[in-house]
UniProtKB/TrEMBL annotation:
Alphabetized UniProt keyword annotations: Ribonucleoprotein, Ribosomal protein
PANTHER family xrefs: 60S RIBOSOMAL PROTEIN L13, LARGE RIBOSOMAL SUBUNIT PROTEIN EL13
Protein name: Rpl13p
GO terms for MF: RNA binding; structural constituent of ribosome
Amino acid sequence: MGFRHNNILFNNHFHKDWQRRVRVWFDQPGAKKSRRNARSAKAAALGMRPLQSMRPAVRGQTLKYNTKLREGRGFTIGELKAAGVPKKYARSVGIPVDHRRKNRSEEGMKLNVDRLKAYQERLIVLPRRSKKNKNQKPDLSSVQTTRDVATAFPIPAGTVSEAPRAITAEEKEFQAYRTLRIARATQRHEGARIARQAKREEEAANAKK
């Protein structure tokens, strides 16, 4: 900002009572302990319910991350239908639903359907409290339950890289660039080649007449 004419110079009072306007984080250790206690209390209140929701395995975006798998927002309608899980029922047992995501490959859909089926096999749904089963407690001593969904159903690794190996003589002789150029030229001139062949056949048929 420049100065014009014979006006008074700026004299902003920025040094007044700065101590009250400084943000400090002296409560960080206490806040950390409070969050940990809150998580423990929530886990105890949930009983046998999983601490996290079941998440699908999805591909990362862009060319840099599309070889890696990560947790997605929710399962698609097609995945739920293939696994035999109704949409409303899924939300009530810790399976989120994402109606916007679409399945682009059979492999990705099969992976998530298998995860849903494995989750259903270990899922235990207790009946609602009513007058009939008010005092009945189910026996869960011999049942395999899980609290940590991420540990019980981990996201598999994406593309597994190959181990280093020696280049074979056949691979050394192979000309990748030339092969690609020939294939590209063949595909580009395919229409003209078919037209020339049809013209030759037509001329040969006319000559016979």
